[in-house]
Amino acid sequence: MSAHPETPAPRPLGGFAAGLALVLVAVLVGVAAQRVSQGAPVPAAASAVAPTGHTTTVAVVADGMRFHPDRIEVPPGDRLVIELTNRDDRRHDLVLDSGAKTPAIARGGTARLDAGVVGAATQGWCSLPGHRQAGMTLQIVPTGSAPATTGHPGDAHAAPAAPHLDAMAAPGDGFAARDAVAPATPPGRLHRRELHVKEIEREVAPGVRQRLWTFDGTVPGPVLRGRIGDTFEITLVNDGTVDHGIDFHAGAVAPDEVMRPIDPGQRLTYRFTATRAGIWMYHCSTMPMLHHIGNGMYGAVIIDPPDLPRVDREYVLVQSELYLGPDGEPGDLAKMQAERPDAVVFNGYVSQYAHRPLPARAGERVRVWLLDAGPNRDSSFHVVGTQFDTVYREGRWENRPTDPGGAQVLGLGPAAGGFVEMVFPEPGHYPFVSHVMVDAERGARGIFEVR
Ligand SMILES: [Cu+2]
Prior knowledge:
Elements: H1 15-32, E1 34-37, E2 54-63, E3 66-68, E4 71-74, E5 79-86, E6 95-96, E7 110-117, E8 122-125, E9 137-142, E10 190-205, E11 208-215, E12 224-227, E13 231-238, E14 247-248, H2 255-258, E15 267-273, E16 278-283, H3 289-294, E17 298-304, E18 313-322, H4 333-338, E19 343-346, H5 352-355, E20 358-360, E21 365-374, E22 379-383, E23 390-393, E24 396-399, E25 410-412, E26 417-423, E27 428-434, H6 437-441, E28 445-450
Parallel strand pairs: 2-5, 4-9, 10-13, 12-17, 18-21, 20-28
Antiparallel strand pairs: 1-2, 2-3, 5-7, 6-8, 8-9, 10-11, 13-15, 14-16, 16-17, 18-19, 21-26, 22-25, 22-27, 23-24, 23-26, 27-28
The structure holds copper (II) ion.
């Protein structure tokens, strides 16, 4: 198997490299293709070309989120048969413009695709979510014809438009915001739980529904909490339709086994011991991670610093971006790649705490834990009308109430976290935002209602 001739070639990087790659592919096809005559009827051709009665067979390997080769030249009029082998650790299939397709095959699996008589350039791709946009495409070209145009893979077909999102719209009366209250630190030292991957359709802004990929049906996933020295034994169960995995930043462990993607119906147990304090991200570990995190697969693990004082109230806010796909479908990977979010949100829903404010009382000390789940954008958390006398960021106390200085924002890059504390001076409505103003205006905002 490892001595197979179709060892993945380097990706072409420019004109010269592309030209070289074409020569290599031509040689590769010349070696791998078997052209045989046969009298059996052939499937209808995509364009009018006289069938030659020959069949060209090409071995294609799926590996590293690419097809090798990713361009196949076929004598016009030949029938093309592709023998697909998957060497990746995740499932793939191959779909053609014509509608011909293989089933999804697991690592080591093979499938045979009859592409019919080749008369015109044809596109192929892997139809598992995100794989086409991540670059899993294949061109079939009649020998001697001009190369097919290669636009952005995500633009290769006209997709239905994304729904319109109004960041100022109010949710309906029945809307319940996600509970932002931080869970209490549980007493035990071993935290055992199952996390089920669920692919669910849910509202992310008033009137806007998306098919989200989730841990346990919520976005963000459940907030887990413990102390330094605690062990977490998490069993991930994939109740979804595509492969998923998990990666906990809260523990140090070799990724090979525990972070591997698992097929639908499978489970794995991920054990780690928390040795350092902070608010740590967890997220799906399946490629393209940009798509899996961008479509909802993230959450937080809080490991309390040993000297964490009691406060009157504690909240958790996880910031993330929304890249809308068509209504009721997963988020749009092409937008994620272009860093063009439709909205930026706290705890998964546009401006939810502007409509359902978080309560507090004047004179109370309030702690807000923050995690920037991204996947792409920084957060700059600010509460209008207050100053932070306490800042804890990425494992360090940066400000304490006894310090003469204070802080106006908690700045976080993607996957970073921390907490701030403040005392509200008097009753009122104190807006909170990411002070990246374009993000505040597209949904990263809320209100503390202080009585
Ligand atoms: Cu996933």
